[in-house]
Amino acid sequence: MSGGLIFAIVIVFFVIVLVAMSVKIVPQQIVGVLERLGKFHKLLHPGLNIVIPIIDHVRMYHDLRIQQANVPPQTVITKDNVQVQIDTIIFYQVVSPDQATYGISDFVMGVRNITTATLRQIIGKMELDETLSGREKISAEIRVALDEATEKWGVRIERVEVVDIKPPADIQEAMDKQMKAERNRRAIILEAEAAKQDMILRAEGDKTSKILRSEGEKEARILQAEGQSRSQELEAEGQAKAIRLIAEAERNRIEQLLASGLDETVLVYKSFEALKEIANGEANKIFLPTGAADALASVGAIGEMFKNKPDKK
């Protein structure tokens, strides 16, 4: 191989290397910080980017997705001198890659240190019971402290989570006993309240039953009285109607007798016919008014009628 050919191959290889170095392909949600001759020049966004080899240099790439940083468990002392161990997780996002590159050397470490210091300050002002029940308050105060510090770093704190708060073993055991006693107390109270409610419901049910039974008996008596009253009214109305009909019939009969020319002779004759029918019956004694007897005697037929009945008077 001649020297000229070797030189040409080297030149081609060198050109290929330069072209490869000048092309930068950045993935989605990734941003590169480009420096030219040691100074910040621009950001390399997702896609194809052309740079000048040797002169341009990509300082670092930043992931723009939300990241999480675990803060190592911290042992802190509460206001009432109790040591507790707290685990915390910080969720953050790089919003300004150039500030995140030049504002601080390691913003993740900075976030952890600020979280640790802030956590000690917060817990030092809180008692144990307040600490155990104040996770949201602790998280909110840590986030406020981080927001003030990370604003200059091009980092935004999305969320702060207090994962766990562990008191000492002896206090944890005492808390467990207290919790167990409290649960037993609540169980006893609930059982007593249930028994009380059961007795109340039974009494109310019995009371309601008696009231309904009394109301039923009352309505039954009222209906029975109304029925009897109505029956008596109907019976009285029937009797009155019968009396009216009898009176009307008697009145009609008298009117008919008067219309047919009724006089004393006819009445005597009718009385005689009536006495004759009575005498033909089974009765062996007949009582007559004095007036009627005189009237019958005047007719002259009474002696004949009583001739065959010597015992009748």
Strands, count? 8
Described by strand count, sense and barrel closure, the largest sheet is:
3 strands, antiparallel
Terminal Cα span? 191 Å
Query: Residue share in helices?
Result: 55-70%
What is the H-and-E element order?
A: HEEEEEEEHHHHEHHHH
Q: pLDDT below 50 for ≥5 consecutive residues: which ranges? A: 309-313
Please tag this protein with its features.
313 residues, alpha+beta, three-stranded antiparallel sheet, elongated
Describe the model.
With 313 residues, the chain is of the alpha+beta class. It is built from nine helices and eight strands. The protein has helices at residues 3-22, 97-102, 107-123, 128-132, 135-150, 169-259, 264-279, 290-299, 302-305; strands spanning 23-26, 30-36, 39-44, 47-50, 56-63, 67-77, 83-94, 155-166. The strands form three sheets. The protein has a three-stranded antiparallel β-sheet. It has a three-stranded antiparallel β-sheet with strand order 6-7-8. The model is unreliable at 309-313 (pLDDT under 50).
